[in-house]
Amino acid sequence: MTATETRSPLARARLWLWALVGIVAFALGTLLAVQWLKPAQSPAGTTAPSDIGTRFTLVDRDGKPVTPQTLKGTPYAIFFGFTRCPDICPTTLNRMAHLRKAMGKDGEKFRIVFVSVDTGHDKPADVGAYVDLFGTPILGLTGSEQQIADAAKSFRVFYQKVPVEGGDYTIDHSAFVVLMDRDGHMQSLLSDHDSDASAIAELRRLIA
């Protein structure tokens, strides 16, 4: 048996361990984020923390800076992910495109914003090309590692690199969409558990 053959099972075990750690961290991070943001969806006058989404600087496909002030004036739905994501990201962005279309003219009254958390693979132009695939206007953003970390913290979003076999990585991340009103205040969340009717009702409330 060669040294490589001896190490191979250990290497595979380490990868499985990292994957398990990533899954647990992803579930915990998402749970904590949803619990932290939950007041925005509660009745009787409760509101989300006022600082959500108020401190970030990212860049668009042309490298131009985008801040909370840039986005003020138009409600928006913001989602964090990465372009190589095999399921959650394309499914979520396809659904947002579908919901916008189902709303008719009202669908033009809010922005869809996608933020890539993958600085190792997603450059500004890559993110711009990716969002173009969904057949509806989507503002694609990214930034430096620190800028993305700051933005994720501002929106209470979880993400974490998880090593995969071959030396590459994937990214676990929160799967909810944050709805921000025209004044830059968080209104509520959308998740894949919401029915289309419920999601459209939230979006109509967002633009009201």
Describe this structure in a few short sentences.
With 208 residues, this protein is of the alpha/beta class. The chain has six helices and nine strands.
Instruction: Name the helix and strand elements from N-terminus to C-terminus, one letter apiece.
Output: HEEHEHEHEHEEEEH
Topology-level CATH name: Glutaredoxin
- Determine the oligomeric state from the structure: single chain
The name of the CATH superfamily reads Glutaredoxin
Percent helix range = 40-55%
Secondary-structure topology with pairs:
Elements: H1 3-37, E1 58-59, E2 65-66, H2 68-71, E3 76-81, H3 88-102, E4 111-116, H4 124-131, E5 139-141, H5 145-154, E6 159-163, E7 169-173, E8 177-180, E9 186-190, H6 196-207
Give your account of this protein's structure.
The protein has 208 residues and is an alpha/beta fold. The chain has a single domain (3-207), classed as Glutaredoxin (3-Layer(aba) Sandwich). Helices cover 40% and strands 18% of the residues. The strands form three sheets. Strands 5-4-3-8-9 form a five-stranded mixed beta sheet. Strands 1-2 form a two-stranded antiparallel sheet. It is globular and about 50 Å long. Mean pLDDT is 85; it is low at 1-7 and 10-46.
